[in-house]
Amino acid sequence: MPKISHKGIAMPESPIRKLVPYAEVAKKKGHKVYHLNIGQPDIETPEVALNAVRNFDFKILEYSHSAGFESYRTKLAAFYQKGGLPINVADIIITTGGSEALLFAMGTTMDQGDEIIIPEPFYANYNGFSVASGVTVVPVISSIDTGFALPPIAEFEKLITPKTKAILICNPGNPTGYLYSKEELLQLADLVKKHDLYLIADEVYREFTYDGGVHYSVMNLPGLEENAIMIDSVSKRYSMCGARIGCIVSKNKAVMATAMKFAQARLSPPTFAQIASEAAIDTPASYFEAVIEEYKERRDTLIAGLQEIPGVKVASPKGAFYCIAELPIDNADTFAQWLLEHYDLQGETVMVAPAAGFYSTPGVGLKEIRIAYVLKKHDLKRAVEILKDAILVYNNI
User: Fold this and answer.
1) Quick check: 15 pLDDT over 80?
2) CA atoms of 185 and 168, how far apart (whole Å)
3) What does R_g of the chain's alpha carbons equal in angstroms?
C-alpha cells in the first residue's frame, strides 16, 4: 500500500476540533452541548458586509489580483492609518484567512529545518503551519502564575541558534488572552534587531482589549520596519470567520515581493469574501463599542464563576476572548472526552479544548483547558455550573 508522508504523519490534530465526533454523539443522545471549545463568535456579522454580497451585480465571478482587490487594499490601508498604523497599500497582501498569511510569512522567511521561537501556550495551528513549512517550533514557556506575561528576554536569547529566523507572538493572545505591554514589545524589538531576526505578530484580536488596556502593534515599533511582519484577519473583528480573509503586512519590500510569489501560486483570495470584507470597513464605531462591552461582561461572568470552583486556577485575560484555566483533575484530554461521552447534568454538558494541544513542550498543560467566552452570559453561567458539578463527579469516579 502507498505510504503517507512523514510530514502528514507529523501534522498534529486540532485540539479544538478533535473532540467533535464525541460532541456529535452527545447531541444524538439528546444532550445540549455548551461549546466553550472554539472561538466562533455569536455576534452578528455587520449588515453592511452581508448587504454588499447580497446586492453585488456581476456577470462573471472573476479572479482578483493575487494581492487582493486594489480597492480593498486601499480602503484597508486607510483603516489602519486611521488607527495610527503607518501602513500603505504596497505593504498589504490579502490572504485566504490569517492562516494563509502565516503560511506565507513562514514560507517567505524560513527554509527547511529553520527555527521559530514562540511563547507557549500558543494558537495550536502554529504547530500545523510549522510542520507544513518544514520549520521547527522552539517554545519558551509562559506561566499561568504570571498571567502568561512575556517570559524574560534572557529565556528567548538562550534559545537563539544559527537556525533561528523569527519570533512569533499573538497579541492579544490566543489561547491566553494576554495583552503584551509596550515595554515587552520594545524588548522583543531590541532582541530581533540584535540577532537580525523577524518579529511576526498575529494581531487578529487587536480590537478586543479590556480594562483600559492599549494594543501596541509591531508596525508602530521604531526602527523595526525591516523586521516586523503583521498578520491580520476579518474573522474576529467583524465576526466573519467563514469569509476566510486575512492579510500579511510588512514594510520590508523583499518580504512582500517574496510573499507575492506565494500569493500568485494560489492565484487569488476569494472574490465574494473580499467584497464583504471591503464593505465591512464601513462598520460604525458603535458596533465595536457594543461588542467589546459585551465581551468584557462575558469575561467577568466567566472568570467570577471559575474562581468560585474549588481548586481552579485561572488567569484573567486582558484581551481577545479566551482564557486558560487549570482544573483539579488528572488529565484534561481524558476529562474533556468524558464530559461528552459519559456525563450530563439534567441533559446538558460542556465541550472544552484541552490546553496541552496549545503547547509544543510534551507533558505541559495537562490539567489546563482553554475556554472561549463566545456564549451569552446566561449560557456561560450555566456552563460553569455544569463544569463545577462535572469536576466533582469525575474526581469521585
Assistant:
1) no
2) 12
3) 21
113: Cβ contacts below 8 Å, ≥ 6 apart: 134, 135, 136, 163
Is 80 exceeded by the pLDDT of residue 99? yes
222: region left, alpha or beta (phi > 0 left; psi from -120 to 50 alpha): beta
Q: Which DSSP category does 60 fall into?
A: S
- With a CB cutoff of 8 Å and minimum separation 6, the contacts of 176 are 121, 142, 147, 148, 315, 317, 322, 323, 324
- The one-letter code for the residue type at 140 is V
Residue 137 in contact with residue 130, Cβ under 8 Å? yes
| Model-wide pTM > 0.85 | yes
Q: What whole-number distance in Å separates Cα of residue 352 and Cα of residue 310?
A: 18
| Mean pLDDT, residues 227-241 taken together | 96
Within 110-207, where are the H helices? 125-133, 153-157, 182-195
Percent of the chain predicted with pLDDT > 90: 95
User: In angstroms, rounded to a whole number, what is the distance separating the alpha carbons of residues 370 and 156?
Assistant: 25
Is the confidence at residue 343, as pLDDT, over 80?
Answer: yes
- Residue corresponding to grid cell 514560507: 107
Rounded-to-integer distance, Cα 190 and Cα 198, Å: 11
Ramachandran quadrant class, 148 (left: phi over 0; alpha: psi -120 to 50; beta: rest): left
Q: Quote the crossing angle between the two packed helices 70-82 and 271-280, to the nearest 10°.
A: 30
160, 184, 222, 225 from 218: Cα distances, Å: 20, 11, 9, 9
* Nearest in space to 166 (alpha carbons), one of 134, 188, 182: 188
Residues contacting residue 232 through CB under 8 Å, at least 6 positions apart: 98, 101, 203, 204, 206, 246, 247, 249
3 state SS of 170: strand
**How many CB atoms lie under 10 A from the CB of residue 24?**
11
* Contact call for residues 114 and 136 (beta carbons, < 8 A): yes
The CA–CA distances, whole Å, from 241 to 40, 98, 131, 333 equal 7, 10, 23, 26
CB-based contacts of 334, cutoff 8 Å, min separation 6: none
Any idea which residue has 503547547 for its cell?
A: 359
